[in-house]
Amino acid sequence: MSKAASLFHPKRLNLSGFVNTRVIRDNNKRMAVEQHEPERQALRYMIRNTSLPGRVRAQAQLQLSQMHSYTRPTQVKNRCVASGHVRSVFRDFRINRFQFRMQALSGHLPGVKKASW
């Protein structure tokens, strides 16, 4: 098994809550982005550096375009860790609005209570 193949199929998952294939795929993307971010930054710097020869910049651009799509930060989507939904996810809690409401009313979110004035 090659190094690239093992990157996208981890044996140990650090997930909590609801798990389906989309949540697993999103977790794999997050790990790949985190692991390859320094390399991507270096290539982007080389591409933008006008003092370097054109050939070096073109090679850097080619390397960047040939990297796996999972290494792009734009591929990462905010998903609800409780239900796996994508829409209306609160970043601070990483859960969608319905799960937020249910967990807040049941008292599972510390410091959150129903407003009354």
UniProtKB/TrEMBL annotation:
<keyword id="KW-0687">Ribonucleoprotein</keyword>
<dbReference type="GO" id="GO:0005763">
    <property type="term" value="C:mitochondrial small ribosomal subunit"/>
</dbReference>
<keyword id="KW-0689">Ribosomal protein</keyword>
<dbReference type="GO" id="GO:0003735">
    <property type="term" value="F:structural constituent of ribosome"/>
</dbReference>
<comment type="similarity">
    <text>Belongs to the universal ribosomal protein uS14 family.</text>
</comment>
<protein>
    <recommendedName>
        <fullName>Ribosomal protein S14</fullName>
    </recommendedName>
</protein>
<dbReference type="InterPro" id="IPR001209">
    <property type="entry name" value="Ribosomal_uS14"/>
</dbReference>
<dbReference type="Pfam" id="PF00253">
    <property type="entry name" value="Ribosomal_S14"/>
</dbReference>
<dbReference type="GO" id="GO:0006412">
    <property type="term" value="P:translation"/>
</dbReference>
